[in-house]
Every structure is written in C-alpha cells, then in structure tokens.
Design goal:
The structure is a homodimer.
Chain A lengths: L3 H6 L3 E5 L6 E6 L17 E7 L3 H12 L5 E7 L8 H13 L7 E6 L1 H13 L6 E5 L2 H7 L4 E6 L2 E8 L4 E5 L8 H18 L1 H15 L3 H21 L14 H11 L6 H18 L5 H13 L11 H8 L11 E7 L2 E6 L2 H10 L3
Parallel strand pairs in A: 2-9, 3-4, 3-5, 5-6, 6-9
Antiparallel strand pairs in A: 1-2, 7-8, 10-11
Helix pairs in contact in A: 3-4, 5-6, 5-8, 6-7, 6-8, 6-10, 7-8, 9-10, 9-12, 10-11, 10-13, 12-13
Chain lengths: 370, 370
C-alpha cells in the first residue's frame, strides 16, 4: 500500500472525452475505485451489475460492491473466466443470462471491473442488452487504463478474427484507480507499457522522450510516473477519438503495431501472448515497415526495438512464416477491397495508414520473427 | 401478376426518415426490387451479401442478385432457416462466418431480403460486423414493410425474452416492393394488417376509419389500397422515430398490443403464433385495459376486436393463465424498477405508456383468453 504522503501527492485528474451528448469524464488518481465521489455524476438506478473475472474478483469486487450499494438497491456480480480465450459469445451470453434472470432493465448500470477483455465484453454487452444500457469502465490493468477503456470500442472475438463482432458504444465514465496497478503481475505491466509507448511515435515525440527517461520508474510502479503516463496516454486517445469516433480515418493510427500484433495473437491462439506483448513486437515490425518504405531512418527501428525490449516485451515474433502472417492479416478490419492496410510512422509524432507490397511485408516479417 | 395498367397507376412514393446524417429514404411502389434505379443512391462497394431465408430465396434471391451484380463485384447469398425460432445467436453467427469467409470488409453492404426476422437479424449483424457495416432493408412481408424494416430496431431473441439482444442501427435505404406481397401467404398478410391497424388508434383516427372501409380491398391485395396502407403506416412510423429514435419516450407507443403479444409469443414458444397474430390479440387486450382504466369507452374495445377479427386475426389469447402472462410480461424492455408498463390508448389517435395494477391486468387477460 502506498503511504498517505504519496496519496496526497497525486491529484485526481479529470479529462473529458468530447463527443457531443456522449461526452464523458476519465478520472485518474489513487484510491478512486472505493471512493463514493468517483460515481457521483452517474444516473441513479435500482439495479447494477459488476462484470469482472475470476482473477480480479477476489481482489476488488467486494470493495466495489460496497461502495456501489450506496447507489443501487441491488448489485449483481457476474464473474467470468479470465483471459482473451474467453472473449467470446459464450461469456457474453452468460452476462445476458444473469442480467435477465435478475430482472435488469434499460436503466441498469453495468460496471466493467477488469482489464481489456472484461471492458470490451462488458461494453459490448451494454451496447446490446435491451439495445443499450449505461456502463462504466473501471480498468484494473495498465493496458486498459491507457487504451482499451477509453474510446468506446467494444467487441468479442470470432474464431476467424479478433474483435470482429462489436460496437462503438461509449461508457458514461472511466475510473482509472492507480492503486489497483499495485497488484498487476509484472508481465501485464509490461503489456500495458506497449500501448503507452505507442502514443509517442504516432502523436507526441516529447512523450516518447519522457517514456525513455522514465521507463525504469514506470516498471518500478512509481505512482507519479504512472499518473503522468496514464494521463498523457488518455489525453492523446481522447483527442484522437474526439475527432474520429468511428474510425473513418484518423482513429486508425491508434492501431500502430496492431496489424502485425493481431496476426501473432491469432496465429498462436488468443491468450498465448498477451495483447500488449503482441503489439510491442508488432510495433517493431511496423517501425521496420516504415523504414523500408523510406518514411523513417533505420535508427528509428533500433530506437523503438530498444525501448520495447527495455519495457520487458518480446521484440521477435513467433516463427509462423511470412505467408501465414499475411493470411492472418488479410481479415483485419482496416482492410479495403482485399488489400491489407498498415499503420506506419510518416514522421516522428505523425502516423498514416497505407497498403504495402506483400513482398516487402514478408521481408519485414522475416527480419523480426523466428 | 398485376396488369400493366395497374403498374402505371401506382407511383413510387419516396418518404424520408429524418435522423440527421442517418436519414434515409423509404421507397414504396411496384417492381422496385429488380429495378436498378432503386439502389442508385447507395455507396459503391466491391462486395455485398444478400441475407434471406429458405422460403424467400427461391422466389426473389436470384432476381435481386442479378440487379446487385451490376453494382457489386461479388454478391454472396446467405440463406437462413425461416421463422422466429431461428432468430437467435446461431443464425447470427452463421452470417458472421460467411462474411468473414468471403473477406467481407467494413464497406460491404448487407441486403436484408425477407420479413421481420430476416430484417431484424440482418440489421443486428450489420450493426456488429466489424462494429458496423451499411445495410439495406428489402422487406418481403406486409408486416416488415409497414413496421419492422423502418426505424432501425434490430435484435435477436434470448430464451428468456424476445428481442432482448440488439441495437438501434439504421439502414441506408428501405425498398418496399408491393409486387412481392403477391406471393405472401394469407396468414402472413393478416399478420401484417395487425401492424397497419395499430397506427390508427395510436396516431390517426382518420386512418383507422380508412382501414375499416378498405379492409376487404387490402385482404384482396388491391395494389392501390396496399400502396396507401404501406405509405401511411411508414409516414406515421417515420414521424415517431424521427422524434425519438432510441425510445426515450414517444416511440414506445409503437408497441401498442406488443406487451401482451410478446407474452403470447414467448408463452407458446416463438413461431407458434406469428408476431402479427400475437399483436392483433394483444391489441384487443390493450384496448380492454385502456377501457378498464377509464380512458376509453367499452365501445372502443368492440370496434377494435371487430376490425382485428375481420383482418383474419385471433382475438382470444391462449389459455396460459393470467399468472403466466404476468410473469412473461415482467421481462419486457419497457419495464422500469420491476413494474410492467403498458401502452394504452388515452384518446382515439393518442397513446401513452403507464403501469397498471396486476389484478386489473389479470381481469383483462381472463376476459380475452382461454
């Protein structure tokens, strides 16, 4: 537990994601999960459901239920099996079944307590249950705090592709409690750092410098460093999503490293590598592609690979073979007319989306896998 | 087949459903399905999918595919088993599987060719596939033309309740071809008339008079009568949905007769009675409830029952027992805080939503079932 002094040092930052009448606050600070004040702006409703998984539930579900019981007459807990392998229809249907069994109605508030998988599934369940109920994101992993809980992308996986079935559906509120990161396994912390690192090359060179300087503090879970990393990541994400909620263009840059990363995840079977690990390695490949397209100097690839390695992430992809990578990438949602489209760095702090010749992509894969 | 003269008599009506940048046209006329002109305003895309069922496919799928092949490089047909019993996740997943197998991307257009079940499922599939692809409604039943294809309510059923899982997701275009009603079975025509009749008491007393006068012509499939019925129904629906897309208030009036009707459908098992049959009988009960609440005179109940009976619809509900009806109605989406809410007629042409005492509802059910 952090000392009371460190509590006092960390202010609660409240960002706003601006989407007209679907705008919402992102709260970042210590001790927010069990603080009644965090939820003060939410609409009242007799029923609420906490959706979480069997790893997070023993740590935080009871504490959250206690505070929510001051707002709701009845709080149902829905505990799903942990892991990307369970981000499927069966889990979603279990949520629906419990909600219906408890007479949950259109006003019932769903609280997603967990990492990206819980957040994506709870958000999609909220989007579909009775054609839409309110929901709140309470991300418990670094990855979810800096990326997946913000922006309203919700989904489940399909055997033929990751996040293929989903909705754009915004939460009412995001509560990033930095204290919950204390219980995060080392490997998950590193996975989250992949998405933090991502924001540098696509949007903010100064942030990339800051991450390089503060990486050791971040891995040591220094609260001030984490607070800044979460805040700056959410600021950039909110800025991008506020301009392009449904990924008509700009938003796709947030998928830097994800095209290669999704192929790794699908190729190995969901859950073998963590999403952030696959994205880390995918960013090395996407940086290499940017260099081979003549957009960035080779030194940029080295810089990215070194940083990703220092974050405790894999920098070489599994030996699936270039052909298999290409096949897996051919079902990516960014694709158009059968052409694979990649997020590349066009200049430090600026990304774009473009196709690339298969032979070039194959060279990139060969250079950074196996 | 209607004579060329009757073709000339029926103009193509184009209504507009106004929802800002999600506004769309509803085309009503003869011969529209196979007319290239009907689709002229749609965005171009290399791939398209026709989603239909095994009853409609042999009648119209080939004709539609031929005309769409002039717009799209490849047109995939997805033929689902017919009937409300198949409005479930298994059918939805089959759509996703075929779309993914064919490399369908975010620009792929889905065409819903069929009745309410096909339209609701295709719309929901379009809402979820890659978080949303464009879709077109080509309703082939009277019920779908006058009600379910317009307004963007999409859903599948859950074993615990009808339409519990879904989305508000608007089509790009609705094409109501009056000619396809020629092949509609008698029973389905009557089911569609239930939704036509509905619009009278909730919104337009003059339309109720018109239906009473023209009911025989409608049942004889007179094209002019059908054209007017479809047009006036869509006008009223578009007016309601344009004010309240997501059913925050007014839109609920479109569910007149549906609370009782859904209980009948769920109680007998989906597909035993047609949706329109259950709604027909449900409107008799909801009229009776309106009378017993002192809102309408008893003569109104007789008027509605007579008209619904003349339309070829059942006017007595199955003998499930009032308790079972109440239990089934307790999962209705309109409910709030565990209280069942009913659409009632407050004055001819004006409806409202309100709770009612269980004992009164039980009396209504006893009077009109068994």
């Amino acid at each position: 537990m952090p000392s009371p002094v460190s509590f006092a040092l960390i202010a609660v930052h409240s960002l706003k994601l601006s989407l007209g009448d679907r705008s919402y606050a992102i709260l970042i600070g210590a001790g927010l999960l069990a603080d009644q004040e965090s939820y003060a702006t939410l609409p009242s409703a007799p029923l609420a459901a906490i959706v979480t998984n069997d790893v997070v539930a023993p740590l935080y579900a009871q504490r959250l239920e206690s505070v929510l019981k001051q707002r709701h007459r009845e709080v149902v807990q829905i505990i799903l099996p942990d892991g990307e392998a369970h981000k499927d229809w069966a889990s979603l249907d279990r949520i629906f079944d419990v909600l219906l069994a408890h007479g949950c109605d259109r006003k019932t508030v769903l609280y997603a307590l967990g990492g990206g998988v819980v957040g994506d599934m709870t958000g999609f369940a909220a989007a579909c249950y009775m054609r839409g109920v309110p929901f709140v994101q309470i991300p418990t992993t670094l990855l979810a705090q800096v990326d997946s809980s913000v922006g309203g992308k919700t989904a489940i996986n399909h055997p033929r592709g990751k996040n293929m079935i989903g909705a754009f559906y915004q939460p009412l509120l995001v509560v990033c409690d930095l204290d919950v990161l204390d219980t995060l396994p080392e490997r998950e912390l590193s996975a989250g750092l992949a998405e933090v690192i991502k924001y540098g090359p696509i949007a903010d060179p100064a942030f990339l410098d800051w991450i390089e300087t503060n990486l050791d503090a971040l891995r040591a879970r220094d609260k001030d460093a984490l607070a800044y990393a979460v805040r700056r990541s959410c600021e950039i994400k909110a800025w991008v999503v506020g301009q392009d909620e449904k990924e008509a263009g700009l938003r796709a840059i947030l998928n830097f490293g994800h095209t290669f990363g999704h192929a790794i995840e699908a190729g190995l079977g969901y859950g073998e590598w963590l999403h952030g690990e696959a994205v880390g390695c995918g960013m090395v490949m996407a940086s290499e592609l940017s260099a081979r397209l003549g957009l960035m100097p080779p030194a940029f690839v080295d810089r990215m690979r070194r940083l990703i390695e220092r974050a405790g992430l894999p920098v070489r992809g599994p030996a699936l073979g270039a052909e298999r990578y290409l096949e897996l990438m051919s079902v990516d949602k960014k694709n158009e007319g059968g052409e694979i489209r990649f997020v590349v760095i066009e200049a430090l702090g600026r990304a774009g989306v473009r196709p690339a010749p298969d032979t070039l992509v194959a060279q990139v894969i060969e250079a950074h896998s196996g």
